[in-house]
């Protein structure tokens, strides 16, 4: 995603930065690293840092489920990305992909393969609640995953 949406800052759990080599490389990407154990302070941090990065011309990449899920399934979406879009008056661009087919939840080993990605239409935040925006993005992603299921 960092290649398609340059320049990009990711929102990720802070603990990922502690992984030798992998975490150190993530740190160099200037992510917005949050403590998931403190949800209320995490959302405030996302809104503050996200607005700064958007104003600087960066894209913000958010995985709304907050963690990896089994390939082809969707977890519950958090609304922090939509809240940031409303605050910054920035559109949401939903993306679906099949990376879960190559990197299973709860596993560190990544299997080789081709990741297929679909980019949806922009969702403008004007007049919508964070929940409405999140549901629109989730609906598009669900439809995209269903259309692109392997036969």
Please tell me what the overall shape is: globular
Tell me, rounded to a whole number, the average pLDDT: 88
Beta-strand content bin: 5-15%
Radius of gyration, Cα only, in angstroms?
15 Å
- Portion of residues within helices: 25-40%
Strand order of the largest sheet: 2-1-3
Could you name the ranges where pLDDT drops below 50 across 5 or more consecutive residues? Answer: none
Order of helices and strands: EHEHEHEEH
Q: Got a strand count?
A: 5
Question: What oligomerization state is this entry in?
Answer: single chain
Question: Main traits of this protein?
Answer:
three-stranded parallel sheet; alpha/beta; globular; 151 residues; 2 domains; 34% helix; 12% strand; single chain; two-stranded antiparallel sheet; 4 helices
